[in-house]
Q: What sequence folds into this?
């Protein structure tokens, strides 16, 4: 029997294929893997086939694990993703850059994104560039004094209706979404020679990209917003 803390479940879903993979956390050994390839050339996600595919495979997985599958990481490849870039600037009056300033700019950018993008959910928040007194940085330089500071932030969003369709399908199997990820975003970090797609997905979830901002549950009380969920200061 596999404890639910010892394995991760991944579902890749696109108009071309569906892949279901269960991997052991300690060494990422494949516990179960199955896939289905569509024969047509449609660009639409086929939720009927997803339902059928899960129906054929979830019980097999639970039998192998000796445990219920409760959460799945969903990786989606679809043209329905919407990307929005926002630049945020703050005049710092020769003060040190600190986490409060970063948090303020990110929250302001999220507010602008939500006003601009309707009926969509933010899936990824990525800081593309830090500009400090006209000098570009790819990683956050904390405690540096400056007069002007700005962030270039990318938001990767997905239609709420599509997410609801995924949730509705999974609910039939008493499964919830652990995290939704963009396949195109993960592909940028995958190399054929060093790591497989789902292992990189796991690394992305665990904070592989230090410039990705993690959305958090507001009820968390044990650690600060940045300290626990942002990879920016590690």
A:
């Amino acid at each position: 029997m596999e404890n639910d803390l010892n394995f991760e479940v991944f579902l890749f879903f696109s108009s071309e294929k569906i892949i279901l993979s269960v991997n052991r956390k300690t060494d990422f050994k494949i516990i179960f893997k199955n896939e289905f390839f569509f024969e047509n050339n449609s660009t639409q996600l086929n939720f009927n086939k997803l339902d059928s595919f899960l129906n054929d495979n979830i019980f097999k997985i639970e039998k192998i694990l000796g445990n219920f599958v409760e959460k799945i990481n969903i990786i989606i490849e679809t043209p329905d993703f919407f990307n929005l870039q926002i630049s945020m600037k703050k005049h710092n009056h020769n003060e040190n850059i600190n986490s409060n300033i970063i948090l303020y700019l990110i929250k302001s950018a999220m507010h602008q994104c939500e006003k601009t993008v309707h009926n969509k959910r933010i899936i990824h928040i990525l800081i593309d560039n830090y500009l400090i007194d006209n000098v570009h940085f790819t990683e956050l330089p904390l405690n540096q004094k400056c007069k002007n500071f700005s962030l270039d932030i990318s938001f990767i969003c997905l239609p709420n209706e599509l997410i609801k369709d995924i949730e509705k399908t999974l609910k039939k199997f008493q499964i919830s979404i652990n995290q939704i990820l963009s396949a195109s975003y993960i592909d940028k970090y995958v190399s054929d020679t060093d790591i497989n797609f789902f292992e990189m997905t796991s690394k992305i979830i665990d904070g592989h990209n230090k410039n990705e901002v993690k959305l958090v549950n507001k009820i968390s009380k044990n650690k600060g917003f940045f300290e626990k969920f942002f990879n920016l200061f590690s």
Strands lie at 7-14, 17-24, 30-37, 71-77, 82-96, 120-132, 135-137, 145-159, 176-182, 212-213.
